[in-house]
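Same chain as my last thread, 244 residues:
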Amino acid sequence: MANINFVPDDYVQGNESRRTNLVYLVLFAVVMTALGGSFVAIKLRQRACGTNEAVVNARMTEIKEVINQFEQLQAKRREMMKTALTTAELLEPVPRSVVLASLTNNLPSGVSLVQLNLLQKESKQNSTTVPTNRGSKYQATQEQRQSAQEGEAQAGENPEKLLETHISIEGTAPSDLQVAAYIERLSGSTLLDNVALVESKECKIEDSTFRQFKLTAMLRKDVHLTKEDVERIRGRAEESVWNF
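reply #2:
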């Protein structure tokens, strides 16, 4: 028996069209939901990245400030070191290592240094002196005032010239001949002046007789050593130490 369909074709096509449209709407809603979720996730990630970037920028700003402060401290340190070196050069025109090297270079054979002291003090010539002539009190006062003014002017122009470097040397030698030779060598040095013998006495060290001596000297005020002179003096001192 043949099946007879009493439903119109238009109704069937309409149902299929509605079903297809519903499927399309569902797919569209799914796609839009996915796009909306992706957009929200991207925005949240951008906000998190922006927060991290702000934290990094703030940290970089703090680091830059710390670096600038460190550079300023280093610049101040260099200026202070330069000022200290300049002051040291004014108060000590010849480095003490060079003075020690010069004293070592002039040591005769068998002579050794035991103690060395350097003392800087004001020159006696700059103190106010009482005139020896028997003039009037007015004339004496004028001379004292003039001497004081000259001393102040000299101190204002070259304050380092008001200081004298006194050197005290103690050592041992086999005999007085070596002591005399050492004094003669120091007297001919370009760095020292007024070399004098203070004391020379006999002493015994492990059944050996030596002469223990004390010398005094002064550092010349008009000494100006170049870099080559300093290197030459120090080089000779090293050779003397190795040959000793």
